[in-house]
Design brief:
With 421 residues, the chain is an alpha+beta fold. It has 13 helices and 13 strands. A hairpin with a 2-residue loop joins β12 (265-266) and β13.
């Protein structure tokens, strides 16, 4: 049967050329769409490297000189670092607070921040995200060590780093080998460079759900480091992050600012807002879902419906035009099941003819980095998933588009069909 169908497809190549072109375009479109959705889904399902449940971000501001309670610099005996430390100590004493940290550009779902490279011996890393945090940051966001245990940094000193496993394995053979080693902040080899000691290695880290794991490291925020940073930067760029005891979220949101009152202000520094971490996630991830993933999903569904109707109409017309051919087959001894199977197999063979050229174009786009290979590398598994998913969708569409016209053709009365012929 297959040999005969292929011969007939060749004989009717002019009529079939438009159908093959349509199937080629549709299959290539399916490859692109399934690849796009798989990349997003694969990244979304991976662990992020942190836990924002029960956590809140506190934004800091300073009083303007025209404010009634403004304290002039000559009247303020505290340094900026002392003010921040005093504010953190007050918030830590609130009963709902389980853990609290002070950080610089380190909160989850923050797309900006500090960037730098690292050097270990002769190996240099690319520019990566630097998160400057106090040791309690790892407790606030439940960050784990590379071996899966909770990461704890009890007492941190100056010039100490915590590497993510991604960068640790880049600079050293394994994450274990990185522990206790020295790295340099930057790529220039200078004698006056101060080495940083690796005190821990964390799990791989994401910037947000749809991003891949990225090389990053944490610098320990000590009083010395904080004073040095505040000498040239605004104190309002600091972030206070807190983890609340489970079940206390509602009480914290309703009563924290009321019960703390004036204790949320130290001289001119005060807590301006308290925002749940999930709101930052909703802003970043929700925007991508609405403007990227859902939009492409709607486009894909619309195109699939349109293509299905086109395939249905095309094969319906072909069936009507081949009533005489079907009648002759039935007169030659073919039963209704054979007629239906013949038309289904013919449609599937048309699909087989378009698989290779569409797949070659898709692979070439991946190989040339025209498609996204940053979020997910070009691998045989990625190609196989896109190919299988697209093929299943197209086969179901073609069978669905052929099934009813083929069954109608198989139910033709022999005398009626022969009269038409």
């Amino acid at each position: 049967m297959i040999k005969h169908i292929l011969k007939q497809i060749w004989v009717e190549r002019r009529q079939n050329s438009w159908i093959l072109l349509e199937l080629l375009v549709v299959f290539f479109f399916l490859l692109l769409m399934t690849d796009f959705l798989w990349v997003k889904l694969k990244n979304y399902m991976e662990p992020k490297g942190f836990d924002i449940e029960h956590t809140y971000m506190m934004r800091l501001k300073t009083l303007e000189p025209i404010a009634p309670n403004y304290l002039a610099p000559e009247e303020n005996a505290m340094t900026k670092a002392d003010e921040a430390a005093a504010l953190v100590d007050r918030i830590r004493q609130y009963p709902d607070v389980e853990a609290i940290s002070l950080s610089i550009f380190a909160e989850p779902y923050s797309m900006g921040g500090l960037w730098n490279g690292l050097r270990a011996d002769t190996l240099h890393s690319p520019s990566m995200r630097c998160r400057v945090v106090t040791p309690s940051y790892f407790e606030v966001f439940r960050i784990r060590s590379f071996d899966g245990t909770p990461l704890r940094v009890e007492a941190a000193g100056n010039n100490q780093f915590v590497l993510t496993r991604t960068i640790a394995e880049t600079l050293f053979d394994t994450a274990t080998d990185a522990l206790g080693k020295e790295v340099y902040n930057g790529t220039k080899e200078e004698e006056q460079e101060v080495p940083f000691r690796v005190i821990a290695v964390s799990e791989p880290l994401k910037r947000q759900d749809f991003y891949p794991y990225e090389p990053a490291f944490y610098e320990m925020l000590t009083p010395t480091r904080l004073n040095g940073w505040l000498a040239t930067n605004d104190i309002t760029w600091l972030n206070i992050c807190v983890r609340i005891h489970p079940g206390r979220e509602r009480h914290f949101e309703e009563m924290f600012e009321v019960e703390m009152g004036d204790r949320l202000q130290v001289n001119n520094l005060y807590v301006a807002s308290v925002v749940p971490s999930h709101k930052f996630r909703d802003e970043v991830v929700g925007k991508m879902l609405r403007e990227d993933v859902l939009l492409m999903t709607y486009v894909m569904v619309f195109v699939l419906i349109t293509v299905f109707l086109g395939i249905f109409g095309t094969f319906w017309l072909r069936t009507r035009q081949r009533r005489g051919e079907i009648a002759i087959r039935m007169a030659a001894g073919a039963n209704r099941s054979t007629v239906w199977k013949y038309m289904i197999v013919e449609g599937l063979l048309l699909i087989v003819l378009v698989i290779l050229p569409a797949t070659l174009v898709y692979i070439n786009l991946l190989y040339s980095d025209i498609l996204d290979t940053w979020r997910l590398p070009f691998t045989a598994g990625r190609v196989a998933i896109a190919l299988c998913s697209s093929l299943i969708i197209l086969v179901l569409m073609v069978i669905g588009g052929i099934n009813w016209p083929a069954r109608r053709a198989a139910r033709l009365e022999l005398a009626e069909a022969l009269r038409d012929e």
